[in-house]
From TrEMBL:
Pfam families, A to Z: SAICAR_synt
EC number: 6.3.2.6
InterPro entries: SAICAR_synt/ADE2_N, SAICAR_synt_PurC, SAICAR_synth, SAICAR_synthetase, SAICAR_synthetase_CS
Enzyme class per UniProt: ligase
Superkingdom in the source lineage: Bacteria
Family: Belongs to the SAICAR synthetase family.
Alphabetical list of HAMAP family matching this protein: SAICAR_synth
Protein name per its UniProtKB record: Phosphoribosylaminoimidazole-succinocarboxamide synthase
GO annotation terms (biological process): 'de novo' IMP biosynthetic process; cobalamin biosynthetic process
PANTHER family, A to Z: MULTIFUNCTIONAL PROTEIN ADE2 (PTHR43599), SI:DKEY-6E2.2 (PTHR43599:SF3)
Assigned GO CC terms: cytosol
Gene name linked to the record: purC
Pathway assigned to this chain's UniProt record: Purine metabolism; IMP biosynthesis via de novo pathway; 5-amino-1-(5-phospho-D-ribosyl)imidazole-4-carboxamide from 5-amino-1-(5-phospho-D-ribosyl)imidazole-4-carboxylate: step 1/2
Length: 254
């Protein structure tokens, strides 16, 4: 197979040029980072599981009409996606207090919020992804008011749908981060869901016991990190057929 051109390497993923113009290949790594890369590690099988979990959740969201960059999964660690212009925002939705909200505002972790809260963080690692408000976003031209209207509408639908889907398998969607991109097609621009949705960027707690099944197991040294990701896939009914043995997946194909 011809060697593909690498376009970008992030902390958990690599983007390669896709087979057709306007497409990219998104490769999921096992690398994990936290606290803006101050903590680094490997979660064996994470890339395989996140590829599956993100495929599954994006397909379900597409079923209800949420536009996404996802086209199809190619293999254990790669998916074909549409090339979009990423909006430099990390959009966080919170249903239950946890993480930086609890630290910043002194609200005890686990407190159910009176309503879902959307926050924006500026996607800039050098600045440590600062919390920003709508005024910053529109004044600095990161997104227009119309873009933000679309982003909020999509984010609320995503939250409602995923909260229900996950609750159905005994998981509380505490909070999550999504990213959006601009897709240009036939002289039109649409805002679409991009990046990934996986236990790397969601807080997922067992609805009965409160046990964490997400990246907080890695961030907070809780142990059984791999098992948390596997349990999410198992409950969604998408654990790779060969089971846990197969999670290392094939080496990267270039
Ligand atoms: O750390 P914080 O409480 O602000 O995180 C809120 C949510 O956003 C968590 O689900 C976390 O996994 C996700 N997040 C992320 N990438 C970041 C920061 C937060 O996926 N850079």
């Amino acid at each position: 197979m011809a060697r593909r051109r690498q376009l970008y390497e992030g902390k958990a993923k690599i983007l390669f040029e896709g087979p057709e113009p306007g497409t990219l290949v998104q490769y999921f790594k096992d690398d994990a980072t936290a606290f803006n890369s101050q903590k680094k590690g490997t979660i064996t099988g994470k890339g395989v599981l996140n590829n599956r979990i993100s495929e599954y959740l994006m397909m379900r969201l597409m079923d209800i009409g949420v536009p996404t960059h996802f086209i199809r999964r190619l293999n254990m660690r790669e998916q074909l996606i549409r090339e979009v212009e990423i909006i430099p925002l990390e959009v966080v939705v919170r249903n239950v207090a946890a993480g930086s909200l609890s630290t910043r505002l002194g609200i005890q972790e686990g407190t159910r919020l009176p309503r879902s809260i959307i926050e924006y963080y500026y996607k800039n690692a050098a600045l440590n992804h600062p919390l920003v408000c709508e005024e910053h976003i529109t004044a600095f031209g990161w997104a227009s008011t119309q873009d933000l209207d679309d982003i909020v509408a999509l984010t609320l639908r995503i939250n409602d749908f995923l909260s229900g889907l996950l609750l159905g398998v005994g998981i509380t969607l505490v909070d999550f981060k999504v990213e959006f991109g601009r897709l240009y097609e036939n002289d039109e621009m649409r805002i679409v869901l991009a990046d990934e949705i996986s236990p790397d960027n969601c807080r997922l707690w067992d609805s009965k016991t409160g046990e964490k099944m997400d990246k907080d197991r890695f961030r907070r040294d809780l142990g059984k990190v791999e098992e948390g990701y596997q349990e999410v896939a198992r409950r969604l009914g998408i654990l790779p057929e060969a089971g846990v043995r197969d999670l290392k997946g094939p080496e990267m194909m270039q």
